[in-house]
Design goal:
Blueprint: E1 3-7, E2 10-13, E3 18-25, E4 33-39, E5 46-51, E6 58-60, E7 68-73, E8 78-83, E9 92-99, E10 109-112, E11 116-121
Parallel strand pairs: 2-11
Antiparallel strand pairs: 1-3, 3-8, 4-5, 4-9, 5-6, 7-8, 9-10, 9-11
């Protein structure tokens, strides 16, 4: 079992920045690709960003490309999401997740955190 706990969410003005963290425990963190997803009320969960096991490859949704940056520190068993130039439509609960398949296979993420709320105000 892999346990994931997100933190760093909060309220920020449009155009501002926020950094989310995800701490992992219970299994060998470096064996998993990691991803960030988000879900707004009444909407489906959507893919945001992903990073490969060693951090050599990253993928982003078109809606956040150029604004968000995913990174990981395997020595600290952590993955991060730096969010810049935030927009109202970025408001959602953000989840981190772990996969042993290709990071682009969104159906392959088997472990999920509890989520952290990000609210962008005008």
């Amino acid at each position: 079992q892999v346990h994931l706990v997100e933190s760093g969410g909060g309220v920020v003005q449009a155009g501002g920045s926020l950094r989310l963290s995800c701490a992992a425990s219970g299994r060998v963190f470096s064996s998993y690709g990691m991803g960030w997803f988000r879900q707004a009320p009444g909407k489906e969960r959507e893919f945001v960003a992903a990073i490969s096991v060693r951090g050599a490859t990253t993928k982003y949704a078109d809606s956040v490309k150029g604004r968000f940056t995913i990174s990981r520190d395997n020595a600290k068993n952590s993955v991060y999401l730096q969010m810049n130039s935030l927009k109202l439509e970025d408001t959602a609960v953000y989840y981190c997740a772990a996969t042993r398949t290709l990071i682009t296979n969104t159906a392959g993420y088997e472990y999920w955190g509890q989520g952290t709320q990000v609210t962008v105000s005008s």
